[in-house]
Amino acid sequence: MLDLETLRIVQASVGALTFVLVYFGTYRSTRAAYARWWSLVVVFSTVSSTLYLLDTGAGVPVADALGNALAVLSGGMAWAAARSLRGLTVSALQLAVVPAVIAVATLLSPRSDAVVAGTGFLVAGMAAQFGLAARRLWILRSEQEGAETGDPRAGIRAALSSVALAASVLAGFYAIRAVAYVALGPESKAYTVWAGPDATTVVVMLAMVTVTYSVTEISRFEVAEAWRRRAERDDLTGLLTRDPFLRQGAVALAATPGAPTSVMLADFDRFKELNDTFGHAEGDAALVAFAAACREVLGPDALACRWGGEEFAAVLEGVDAEAAVAVAGEARPPDGGPCGRCPGGHHGELWARGGLAGEALVDVLERADEALYLAKAAGRDRAVVHGEEPASS
């Protein structure tokens, strides 16, 4: 059995080779965020392992604190890599908080020749970070279940499974280490043999190799997904375009039979007059402002789309007619809009509800369109629920 120092040297060597393969072999060709994050995972994990070799001299407390902080930071970057596959970002503050706490806790912890200071904080932090990464990866893996044979997303399942399993193993292993550290003590034989630094170094190397094997395929998947998401979004407003909205909306309605669900259409009052009077740039600004209001009120992941021209559509799950009308009143730019000179002093949205969950979305949209027509005929600037008489504004 190799001693701990030799194992850490081997880990550092494997990490350096892995970085070269991931960064130059995958990231430079794909520019995928996942490959970039995983390159950083390897770098910080390798530097952390190297710092633990500095076990003599006055700088040991600082080396241990940095080693623990960078190890936890590498776990946080594994979480960031998993989030990047859905186009989600992680701020520098989110990544820095836990490592900073670990570093301070390590410096304040009592020292021992038998164990690195702050080990208890380290293993708890690693369990949490890899647990978050595993959760995100399993969610993404489950979303590929419905992909049909031939769909590019179907081929990614095996790669996602291996990475999610590796993250789960690491999260579980560090959780076991944390329990054993507290229950058995860092100097017990059971802890040192099965959950000590030697075993950890081996497990980390195996996980590193396993994940790196799938990096290329996952990075290509990420690039393809980014292009797919871009193709599904309206260039001006950033909302969904019609086809993906119809697909996702139909799934949402079918998934919640019997639950209150509102389908709404919106139109701008006298939009052509705005364009003709002040120019298309002002009209575009109005559309962008309305899309921003939709995202603020409905949430960034809401099913909302630019239906066409100045028309918008949305599916509100779990929202009944009364609540939908209230939402309609909120989802509008301030009076005067972004240009401050719209006809009538404001951008008038015409919202309409039609249908319940379990019905075909296209049928519900037809009734919402009827309500939208009634809203226009009743004087504009009002919300109309299908089947009800238009109220005065």
From TrEMBL:
InterPro entries: Diguanylate_Cyclase, GGDEF_dom, Nucleotide_cyclase, Rev_trsase/Diguanyl_cyclase. The chain crosses the membrane at residues 6-25, 37-54, 60-81, 88-108, 114-134, 163-184, 190-211. SMART domains: GGDEF (SM00267). PROSITE patterns: GGDEF. Gene3D superfamilies: 3.30.70.270. Keywords: Membrane, Transmembrane, Transmembrane helix. It comes from the Bacteria. It comes from Demequina litorisediminis. This is GGDEF domain-containing protein. Residues 259-388 form the GGDEF domain.
